[in-house]
Amino acid sequence: MTNKTLDKSDFAALSEFRYQMRRFERFSEDVVQAQGITPLQYLLLLHIKGYPGRDWASVGELAERLQAKHHGVVALATRCEAMGLVVRRVSETDRRRVEIHLLPHGETILAQLAEQHRIELLSLEGVFTIPQIRHE
Fold first, then answer.
1. 19 three-class SS
2. Which residues, 6+ apart, have CB-to-CB distance to 69 below 8 Å?
3. What's the rounded Cα separation, in Å, for the pair 94 and 60?
């Protein structure tokens, strides 16, 4: 840990970063809700599809990705399952593990939202950057 105190430009850089991050989050919330799902439901779908090496994820893996409690992700998966977005399957290789898979309706919504997010991220190129906080 350093003893250096941050100066005005450091705080300005941090403030700008948080502002741009919040602007993107707000954009995301708006487009996701326009599709009839919540931001957490979108993130659940995204993390299932984007899980490294396979097209499903366990509740524990999703809890880590979402930085949420296990029981909260179980409830979230239950709501998504009721909406026809995902399905739970008991693993064929480990009967103790439950896999969460996307259903076609979840895939369709996710693809539409991911494209909107991609376009927005491309529009932020050069604006949304990681702040360069000096340390000496």
1. helix
2. 63
3. 14
- pTM greater than 0.85 (yes/no): yes
User: Which pLDDT value is given to residue 50?
Assistant: 97
Q: Give backbone dihedrals phi and psi of 45, rounded to 5 degrees, phi first.
A: -60, -45
d(CA 69, CA 2): 33
Q: Please determine, for residue 44, whether its predicted confidence score (pLDDT) is greater than 70.
A: yes
Compute how many other C-beta atoms are within 10 angstroms of the C-beta atom of residue 82. 9
Q: What is the dihedral of CA 33, 36, 42, 44, to 10 degrees?
A: 140
Helix segments in 35-136, DSSP class H: 39-49, 59-66, 70-82, 104-123
Question: Taking a C-beta distance cutoff of 8 angstroms, is the pair 118, 98 a contact?
Answer: no
92 residue type, one letter: E
37, two tokens: 């799902």
Q: Report the distance separating Cα 81 and Cα 91, nearest Å.
A: 17
- One-letter amino acid for residue 121 of the chain: L
CA nearest neighbour of 132 among 14, 23, 18: 14
**What does the pLDDT read at residue 29?**
97
